[in-house]
Specification:
single chain, Clc chloride channel, CBS-domain, 3-stranded mixed β-sheet, globular
């Protein structure tokens, strides 16, 4: 018996004993999920603290300690050619170390961590190797601590998700529960990093799991609360960003925030396009060894950092300064355009880091600059520039992630300022709408499009859905009546119907409408029709505006029609004659998708084992 088989046998044994114990004390499965969600929150919080300390240690070793050699607290405070050279070289050295680690230990796992977690949930049943947590802590701490321009949140989400997945597989959880636990881990990591428990939970549900089911919400909230409490006890209870209590000065100011929403959407588009443009440039240089590319990216960031140290990912000082209106406006404007490029140099070259914090950074600079100029033009109608910087943070995040609720809640929590909620909501919606009209997906999902692994808004793999033939799923045993059936016959028929909606056809078997329970209820509740019900026929109560499809469409087109119409099933008509062939139910289509997904996962697993 192999080690893998022995391990699996032991896992099943321990899981069986744990399940029997909780069953013996009448502990429900939902409570069990809450318990393990809390444990994941504790583990995720510990992981976030270790990651935070690792970044601080490396930043001190590479910037603060060498600064003491020159008689100063940091290299950035030293006016010396030697210090300038070190400032340029340190990110390159960090990039080289990351390249070495990636080459030997992180094959296919480098770069932005959040899309990898989304893929694990959508395509791999929530399975993420536990070793990724260790690799990400080391690699990302090196990348960010030595001056990389990536953010902490991408790696920390992957660290928390990896810990959660490993713990869930130890308990031998079902695929559905394992996905929820991965969401708990992602929420725990992000909540601890930004001191924002509700924002972390919403992020996990809106971006990672793409569902807001009640069963999912509770364990994720528990996980976020526990990880944040642990983080606050160790790192402090202050908001992630320091900011004064701004307010809406006048209703006229909403017009300025509307403009800021458009600028934030434009800024988000610039961020996404420049990020992938630079990533493509690094990918084109095939002759340069991948182990060296992060060093080149680090060198470029080092050159930028010599003049604009605010681009580095280990500090939020630049954001706090612009929120407090303490930065030079020229530097603020420069950082709007330079930060996305520096982030792309770091991550696009093969380094580690996230894009969430850099998009917050860019939004703060954009909003701060806009607020500065609006304040000059309309001083009597505007709040200080810091208020616009705060709102700009949320706007650009919403534009890059297409996650409006996450941007709203996280920005509110990280700044602890409720009075500016109306401008936040307006700017976020405008920025998201504008960004969606231009970009084909968010910063995270565009990666899947480029790799041919498109994922829809519910986390389903589009390529699998496209390969499903609707013709093979048509159910010809369905509820349908003729349009001349009388009221009493309709009532008897709908009582026995399988679904809440029945189809209506004419004398030529052409589909002409549907009758739902709501249609029947409306007639019953209408006193005006009380005395004429004996004369009512199906044609009088049916809904003529129906969603239907032909047998030639694929599963992706079918599920889109079902989701858009919130349907139980999709009527299918013959593409030649127009006659009703049957129906395809939502459940049958999703069951087919799950089977095809399982087959694909099994084949991928066999290939990886073979390799």
């Amino acid at each position: 018996m192999s080690i893998f088989e022995v391990t699996q046998k032991r896992l099943r044994f321990y899981n069986s004993r744990i399940s029997r114990y909780f069953a013996s004390i009448n502990f429900s499965q939902d409570n069990y999920l809450l318990l393990i969600g809390g444990i994941v929150g504790l583990l995720g919080g510990i992981g976030a603290i270790i990651f935070h300390e690792a970044i601080d240690f490396i930043e001190h070793a590479f910037f603060s300690a060498p600064g003491s050699f020159f008689g100063s607290d940091s290299l950035f405070d030293v006016n010396s050619p030697g210090a300038y050279l070190l400032i340029i070289l340190v990110p390159a050295i960090g990039g080289l170390l990351v390249g070495i680690i990636s080459h030997f230990f992180e094959k296919g796992e480098k770069g932005e961590g959040i899309p990898n977690v989304i893929t694990a949930v959508a395509s791999k049943g929530g399975v993420i190797r536990g070793s990724i947590a260790i690799k990400k802590i080391i690699g990302s701490a090196l990348s960010i601590g030595t001056g990389g321009a990536g953010g902490k949140e991408g790696p920390i989400v992957q660290i928390g998700a990896s810990i959660a997945s490993s713990f869930g597989r130890f308990l031998n959880l079902s695929q559905d529960r394992l996905k929820i636990l991965v969401g708990c881990g992602a929420a725990a990591g992000l909540s601890a990093a930004f001191n924002a428990p509700l924002g972390g939970a919403i992020f996990a549900m809106e971006i990672i799991l793409r569902t807001f089911r009640a069963r999912t919400f509770s364990p994720i909230i528990i996980s976020s609360v526990i990880s944040t409490a642990l983080s606050r006890g160790y790192l402090g209870n202050e908001p992630a960003f320091s900011i004064a209590k701004y307010d809406l000065v006048s209703d006229v100011e909403l017009l300025f925030y509307l403009v800021l929403g458009l600028l934030s959407g434009l800024g988000a588009i610039y961020f996404v396009k420049s990020f992938y443009f630079i990533e493509d440039i690094f990918a084109k240089f095939k002759k340069i060894p991948p182990i060296v590319k992060p060093a080149i990216g680090g060198l470029l960031v080092g050159i930028i950092g010599l003049w604009l140290p605010g681009v580095y990912g280990f500090s939020y000082d630049a954001i706090n300064n612009v929120l407090s209106h303490n930065l030079d406006i020229v530097i603020v404007v420069a950082l709007i355009f330079i930060k996305p490029i520096a982030t792309a140099f770091t991550i696009g070259s093969g380094g580690n880091g996230g894009t969430f914090a850099p998009s917050l950074f860019m939004g703060a600079m954009l909003g701060g600059a806009f607020g500065h100029f609006v304040g000059i033009l309309f001083p009597e109608y505007t709040a200080p520039a810091g208020a616009y910087a705060l709102v700009g943070m949320a706007g650009v995040v919403a534009g890059t992630t297409h996650a409006s609720l996450t941007a709203l809640i996280m920005t509110f929590e990280m700044t602890d300022n409720y009075k500016i909620i109306l401008p936040l909501m307006l700017t976020i919606i405008v920025a998201t709408t504008f960004s969606k009209s231009i970009l084909k997906g968010s910063l995270y999902t565009i990666k899947f499009l480029r790799e041919g692994k498109e994922i829809d808004i519910y986390g389903r793999q589009v390529n699998i859905l496209k390969n499903i033939s609707i013709k093979s799923l048509i159910d010809n045993k369905f509820d349908i009546i003729t349009d001349n059936l009388n009221w009493h016959q309709i009532l008897e028929y709908i009582k026995k119907a399988k679904y809440n909606t029945i189809l209506v056809k004419d004398s030529n078997s052409k589909l002409v409408g549907t009758i739902a329970f709501q249609n029947i209820r409306d007639v019953i509740m209408d006193e005006d029709t009380k005395h004429i019900r004996d004369f009512i026929i199906a044609r009088d109560v049916m809904t003529e505006n129906i969603t239907k499809a032909t047998e030639t469409i694929n599963g992706e087109e079918a599920i889109k029609l079902i989701d858009e119409g919130d349907l139980e099933y999709l009527p299918v008509v013959n593409s030649s004659t127009g006659s009703v062939m049957g129906i395809v139910s939502r459940q049958d289509l999703l069951n087919k998708y799950q089977k095809e997904l399982f087959i694909q996962q099994s084949e991928s697993k066999e290939m990886s084992i073979g390799e």
